[in-house]
Design brief:
This protein folds into two domains: 95 residues, ACT domain (Alpha-Beta Plaits, 2-Layer Sandwich); 66 residues, ACT-like. Chain A, domain 2 (Alpha-Beta Plaits). It is elongated. Strands 5, 6, 7, 8 and 9 form a five-stranded antiparallel beta sheet that branches. Strands 2-3-1-4 form a four-stranded antiparallel beta sheet, sandwiched between helices. The chain is α+β, with helices and mostly antiparallel strands.
Length: 185
């Protein structure tokens, strides 16, 4: 099993880590993985699940704020799940990541030119506009989506939702490489 460890020797300081878990697609597996977090009393800050670049292999991207030592132990436990093919963690600097946020506001607020300017200035876009409400989409880091929320809040945000982090490693190694390494071991 492949595990990527940080070069940072300071393992007792809590900081953000992105966990990448590649699995076969079995019902109940996400529950079993999240139970490992629950038993260790580790809060999941963000979670996203999707297909990977390899047919039949799925990826969970989970963000936690913990010590590196705790994350190492967590990865070891996750890798013990039969359907988990490979799991590793990375520091924020080692990943390229984004989140998507949707904001629903009343259409009548669009008469204010401020809203359209705020949307443009924050590199967001209108996804849908109808008679009663409009939906704005913003892709970026958590801080960016929160900043736009704070700017739109005076105009009456009716609904707000942000996805979990989606991330890819800056390393050249990809899932196929990890799977070949697994087969060779």
């Amino acid at each position: 099993m492949a595990t990527i460890y940080s070069d940072d020797n300071n393992t007792d300081v809590k900081r953000a880590f992105t966990l990448s878990i590649f699995t076969e697609n079995y019902s109940g597996l996400l529950y079993r993985v999240t139970q490992i977090f629950t038993r260790r009393k580790i809060n999941i800050d963000s979670i996203a699940a999707s297909q990977s670049e390899v047919k039949g292999v799925y990826r969970y991207t989970i963000v936690v704020e913990e010590t590196e030592e705790t994350v190492r132990k967590l990865i070891t436990q996750i890798e013990k799940q039969v359907e988990v093919l490979v799991a590793f963690y990375s520091d924020v600097e080692d990943m390229i990541y984004q989140e998507i946020a949707l904001y629903k506001i009343k259409t009548e607020t669009l008469t204010s030119t401020n809203v359209e300017k705020i949307v443009r200035d924050n590199n967001a876009r209108f996804l849908s506009v109808d008679q009663h409400f409009c939906v704005i989409e913003k892709t970026g880091h958590k801080e960016e989506t929160e900043e736009l929320f704070n700017k739109l809040e005076p105009f009456g945000v009716q609904e707000f939702v942000r996805s979990g982090r989606v991330a890819v490693s800056k390393e050249e190694k990809n899932l196929s490489t990890y799977l070949r390494e697994l087969e060779n071991n």
